[in-house]
Write a structure and sequence with these properties.
Blueprint lengths: L1 E5 L4 H12 L3 E5 L7 H7 L20 E4 L8 H9 L3 E3 H9 L3 E6 L4 H14 L5 E3 L11 E2 L5 E5 L4 E3 L2 E4 L8 E4 L13 H13 L1
Parallel strand pairs: 1-2, 1-3, 3-4, 5-8, 5-11, 6-8
Antiparallel strand pairs: 6-7, 9-10
Length: 210
């Protein structure tokens, strides 16, 4: 597939781009700022945009889909062009579910300790020679990328309660429809989005219901 990532420089987004390229997809991307290590890693895969910034000319009708990163705003010119051309647009978690819908999905959520808990599960599965995909929020020793996408029977996902994208205000973890959920703990966070603890806690209740 031909896939374009708007806001490719983010930690999760650039790892997704690398994982997609490894799977044989034709990947392009854009961002208004790209810092290391994302810059060097994208360059090593030939995925670093030739020009920094947004350019609607990068968006054409022959794209199979666009993945929209969290820090791209609704008025982003590339997003607007994709909408005009009716290119399918997915947030990061929407796309991940699209890939993982036939897999057994394990989601680790919570205000603190998500990455540590996710990495522990990943290492245990690795030691047991299990085949699995994953999304984790940091670079983990023993794993080259923060994302793996394949035809493995299961996927381990670090689930984030923050908003999915400029087009989708739902918490990211609600997209994953998990078979198994681990919640490490709930302590009020993201006050700019969830102005009360009750509203924040309610997102985790919604996760358990999906």
């Amino acid at each position: 597939m031909r896939i374009h990532l708007i806001a490719i420089g983010g930690s999760a987004m650039h790892n997704l781009a690398l994982a997609l390229a490894r799977e044989g997809h034709s990947v392009s991307g854009s961002d208004d700022e790209i810092y290391n290590p994302a810059r060097d890693r994208l360059a090593a895969y030939g995925l670093l945009p030739a020009q920094i910034g947004w350019d609607p000319e990068r968006i054409s009708a022959d794209l199979d889909l666009v993945i929209l990163g969290m820090h791209a705003h609704r008025d982003n010119p590339e997003l607007q062009r994709a909408m005009e051309l009716e290119v399918p647009i997915f947030s990061y978690p929407e796309f991940l579910y699209r890939h993982a819908r036939s897999q057994r999905r394990v989601v680790i959520a919570g205000s603190h300790g998500k990455t540590t808990t996710t990495s522990l599960i990943m290492h245990l599965l690795q030691k047991s020679n299990s085949d699995f995909d994953y999304l984790v929020g940091a670079q983990i020793e023993g794993f080259e990328l923060m994302v793996r996408l394949s035809d493995a029977p299961a996927i381990v996902i670090e689930g984030d309660e923050y908003l999915s994208s400029a087009l989708d205000p739902r918490p990211k973890f609600l997209h994953y429809r998990p078979h198994l959920v681990v919640i490490t703990g709930i302590a009020w966070d993201h006050m700019n989005v969830f102005p009360t603890f009750e509203e924040y806690r309610a997102q985790f209740a919604r996760l358990l219901e999906v």
